[in-house]
Design goal:
Histidine-containing Protein, Chain: A; 216 residues; 9 strands; three-stranded mixed sheet; 3 domains
Length: 216
């Protein structure tokens, strides 16, 4: 098991390795395997890249994000401009119905609402607009209408987990209540935790995922 000092070093190196991140703008603190990222970044996409970089490091038990997005002057856009471009992007995104998702922009923060058939469509919409210049944050309030029997959702998720990481799947419990999936049990790394969450989100009929997994 890595010490907190080793984990801090590994996270800092991974941030340095990630080309989408300016690592010098990010502070890293670690206590009992819980990593805290702090600092000021120039875009939402950089913030997301930093989060993903930290999550890739083996031994990370949990991640606390205290990163603020401060847009440089040349990247500041009006809310009207952001709304116009975001609507266009969503219309041109594969798998998205043109009228399924509606958005509101306030001070550079986008709120997404609407109804889609699959959870992955909701996640796709978030990723599409989060990369836009001038966007400081994204709130996802998109609902999933697709309904599937809880037993089938649980079965599909466990089978997907076994395909990705059979060892971890044996120690994960999946419960489903009205489309909300709760994952519990133990995994060996944050990366394995991400695999489990991804498998849950990809299952038909999933409306939300609650992650109660602990990292050994």
């Amino acid at each position: 098991m890595k010490t907190d000092l080793q984990l801090k070093h590994d996270v800092e190196e991974e941030l340095e390795w990630e080309p989408a991140v300016t690592a010098s703008n990010i502070g890293v603190e670690v206590k009992d395997g819980v990593v805290t990222l702090s600092g000021h970044l120039s875009s939402l996409s950089e913030k997301i890249a930093a989060e993903q970089a930290a999550q890739r490091v083996g031994g990370v038990r949990a991640l606390v994000v205290e990163l603020d997005v401060h847009l440089p002057g040349e990247d500041v856009r009006t809310d009207e401009d952001i709304a116009h471009i975001a609507r266009s992007v969503l219309r041109w995104t594969a798998g998205m119905s043109e009228d399924a998702v509606h958005l509101q922009v306030e001070h550079g923060h986008i709120t997404l609402r609407g109804m889609v058939d699959w959870a992955w469509q909701s996640q796709t919409a978030v990723r599409a607009v989060a990369q836009l210049r001038g966007v400081a944050g994204v709130a996802n309030h998109i609902e999933v209408r697709h309904t599937v029997a809880p037993e089938k959702i649980s079965k599909d998720i466990l089978e997907a987990m076994r395909r990705h990481a059979d060892r971890e799947a044996r120690h994960i419990q999946v419960t489903v209540d009205e489309g909300t999936v709760r994952l519990s049990g133990k995994v060996h790394s944050f990366a394995e935790r991400v695999v489990a969450r991804g498998a849950a989100w990809a299952a038909p009929g999933v409306r939300a995922v609650v992650d109660d997994l602990s990292v050994e």
